[in-house]
Write a sequence for this structure.
């Protein structure tokens, strides 16, 4: 994979905003988990089944906590890149590298989301609207990231 050479700031701002929405969603679920509260499910039915299933935690931690951390990492990677516009060319090159790995990292979130949507659809037969919202966020992040990386490859 080639180093990133030119990336639209607008595309990175889009990534940041989507990651922020995903972070808010996942953090809400995490807080509610530790409060012992099941969030209301108004769009779908099955939040309780999904959020209390054995698939909702790993090693005693809610899956949503992992989602919060994932979205936070993406936001930080985007912010580092956006702030590099004011720095020297040497530092900018380093920040492009951080952005590249942030973009590649979105694939991990997408693959995790695929797994959890599969669990909801084919194992639990229940859907959590918050979980589906997170899956949508991670999908948008990954598709946008792959488009940015693809444009960079084609431009080289």
């Amino acid at each position: 994979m080639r180093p990133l050479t030119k990336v639209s700031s607008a595309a990175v701002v889009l990534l940041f905003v989507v990651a922020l929405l995903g972070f808010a969603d996942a953090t809400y679920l995490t807080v509610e988990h530790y409060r012992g509260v099941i969030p209301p499910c108004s769009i779908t039915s099955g939040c309780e089944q999904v959020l209390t299933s054995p698939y909702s935690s790993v090693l005693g931690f809610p899956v949503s906590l992992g989602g919060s951390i994932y979205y936070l990492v993406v936001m930080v990677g985007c912010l580092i890149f956006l702030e590099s516009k004011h720095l020297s060319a040497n530092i900018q090159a380093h920040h492009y590298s951080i952005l590249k790995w942030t973009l590649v990292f979105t694939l991990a979130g997408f693959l995790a989301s695929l797994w959890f949507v599969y669990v909801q659809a084919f194992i639990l037969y229940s859907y959590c609207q918050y979980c589906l919202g997170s899956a949508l966020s991670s999908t948008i992040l990954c598709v946008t990231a792959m488009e940015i990386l693809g444009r960079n490859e084609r431009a080289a």
Remarks:
- The first helix runs from residue 9 to 35.
- The mean pLDDT is 93.
